[in-house]
Every structure is written in structure tokens, then in C-alpha cells.
């Protein structure tokens, strides 16, 4: 099974980083976001990826083109320009990178895969890191007759909460769970029938496609209560790095 990664957006809310690089290459604890995303898929045996690039997509190509070099121990003879490879800590990944245009919306990017994928596939965004149980997601999807299955998560509240009694603050609750609502966590299992619901380059997966699938009773969900961190702002990136330093991610 292949995992598709949406990696073409401009990431304007993280402009401090994305003016220089595409969002999936923003680093958390010394590794690009896309590397963290792929590591979780790889834990479950997923080693074939399709990256849908757009904004600054050439940098994504260069990252994977030089991937083995970044993982290798090398000796350079500067007098002759010769180099010797001592050890390569590579990964058995196969990565296909497709240019889907700078201004194409999410639905339009996925639509470019029509005819290339004729079996069920996985999909996520290039800016959300999670330890989601991919086997659990797939099992839920395969037991259903759904066109798509999304991952439902409960994000933490944006602000800490105050526990009050009368006119007194009794205690603080740092970043509790939100209001109990479940939101789209951005990890999907899809059948090729999803292409029948996709529009042109301006169509949005979230606004145009998924509501149509849901209206026909063909959109399932898989609840994930583990680690989940989207990266939209510098503070989000800091939260992710703090979590990595605390060992929240199995591969870190």
C-alpha cells in the first residue's frame, strides 16, 4: 500500500520558516516534518510514498535526491576530489514526487493521481505529526464499505483553564482537552472511488469532497487518542519539538 503526502501548500501561517523552504521541510528536532510523518508509516510496513509537491517543490526533490548522502559516513580526499563511502544508514523507502502546481488546491492535487492509483491508499498532510495506529485505521476502513475513512482526534484547548470557586482561583489546568468535539486529524484511508468526488484544481478535499462523501453515508472515522500535533505556527513547532525531546514519538 502507498501513502500519499500533500506537500504543495505555501504554509503562510508559518511564514517565519516557509519563506525559505516548503513546510514539509521545516525541521523539528533536526529532522524535516515529512521525515517524522514517513517514520510513523514505516513503523507499520508502509515504505512506498507519493509526495504531491507544489510550492518550492524543487527543494523536496533535492532533499530526497541527497537523502543517502545525509545518512552516510564519508571520507573526502580534498587533494583529488575522491570520496569513499564508509557506511550508509539508509531506509528502504521508495519515494515518488509529483509536481501538482503551486496554486492547486488539495482536491486538485489528489485528482492528479487518477489513473496512477487503482487500489486503496493512505493520505495525509505534510505538516501534521502523529503516532496514529495505521493498522487500526486500515482495519476500520476495510471492515466498512466506505469510500473514505478519516482519523478523528480531540485537540487540546488553545489556552489553559482556570478552576474557579466563588471569587477565588482554585487551580490552573494547563492545556486541557478541548470541548469534547472530535476534529479531522488529517490521516485518511481511501478507495479509488474517491476520484469520482474530486473536482478541478480549485477543488478542496475538506470543503468540497469530504462533505459529498459524508452526505452519501460513505465517510467513516477512526478515533485516535494518542499523540497528534499539527504545525501551523511557530508555537506549534515548539510544542512538537518539546514532545520529541520528552520521547513522545517512538522513532525519536
**Secondary-structure element order, as H and E?**
EHEEHEHHEEEHEEHEEEEHEEH
Can you identify the CATH superfamily? Spore Coat Polysaccharide Biosynthesis Protein SpsA, Chain A
Order of adjacent strands in the largest pleated sheet = 7-4-1-8-13-10-14
Summed up, the helix count is 8
- Name the poorly predicted regions: none
Here the CATH topology equals: Spore Coat Polysaccharide Biosynthesis Protein SpsA, Chain A
Radius of gyration: 20 Å
Assess the beta-strand content as a share of residues: 25-35%
Oligomer: single chain
The total domain count is 1
Compute the number of strand runs: 15
Q: What portion of residues is helical?
A: 25-40%
Describe the structure.
There is one protein chain. The longest helix is centred in the C-terminal third of the chain and has 12 residues, at 234-245. This protein is of the alpha/beta class. A seven-stranded mixed beta sheet has the order 7-4-1-8-13-10-14. The protein has eight helices and 15 strands. The protein has one domain (2-153, 180-245): Alpha-Beta Complex (Spore Coat Polysaccharide Biosynthesis Protein SpsA, Chain A). The two termini are 24 Å apart.
Brief write-up:
This protein has 252 residues and is of the alpha/beta class. The protein has helices at residues 15-18, 33-43, 57-65, 67-71, 106-111, 134-142, 205-215, 234-245; strands at 2-7, 27-28, 31-32, 48-53, 72-77, 82-88, 94-99, 121-125, 128-130, 148-153, 161-165, 168-173, 183-190, 219-223, 228-230.
Amino acid at each position: 500500500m502507498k501513502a500519499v503526502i500533500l506537500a504543495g501548500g505555501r504554509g503562510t501561517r508559518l511564514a517565519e520558516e516557509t519563506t525559505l523552504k516548503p513546510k514539509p521541510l521545516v525541521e523539528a528536532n533536526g529532522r524535516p516534518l515529512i521525515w517524522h510523518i514517513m517514520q510513523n508509516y514505516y513503523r507499520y510496513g508502509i515504505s512506498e510514498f507519493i509526495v504531491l509537491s507544489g510550492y518550492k517543490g524543487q527543494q523536496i526533490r533535492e532533499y530526497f535526491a541527497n537523502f543517502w548522502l545525509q545518512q552516510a559516513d564519508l571520507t573526502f580526499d580534498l587533494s583529488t576530489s575522491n570520496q569513499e563511502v564508509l557506511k550508509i544508514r539508509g531506509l528502504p523507502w521508495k519515494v515518488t514526487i509529483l509536481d501538482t502546481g503551486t496554486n492547486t488546491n488539495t482536491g486538485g492535487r489528489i485528482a492528479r493521481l487518477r489513473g496512477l492509483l487503482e487500489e486503496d491508499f493512505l493520505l495525509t498532510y505534510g505538516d501534521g505529526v502523529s503516532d496514529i495506529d495505521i493498522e487500526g485505521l486500515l482495519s476500520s476502513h476495510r471492515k466498512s464499505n466506505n469510500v473514505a475513512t478519516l482519523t478523528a482526534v480531540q485537540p487540546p484547548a488553545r489556552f489553559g483553564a482556570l478552576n474557579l470557586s466563588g471569587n477565588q482561583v482554585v487551580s490552573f489546568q494547563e492545556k486541557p482537552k478541548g470541548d469534547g468535539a472530535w476534529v479531522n486529524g488529517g490521516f485518511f484511508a481511501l478507495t479509488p472511488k474517491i476520484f469520482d468526488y474530486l473536482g478541478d484544481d480549485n477543488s478542496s478535499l475538506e470543503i468540497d469532497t469530504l462533505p459529498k462523501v459524508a452526505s452519501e453515508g460513505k465517510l467513516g472515522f477512526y478515533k485516535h487518542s494518542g499523540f497528534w500535533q499539527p504545525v501551523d505556527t511557530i508555537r506549534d513547532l515548539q510544542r512538537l519539538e518539546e514532545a520529541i525531546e520528552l520521547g513522545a514519538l517512538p522513532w525519536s
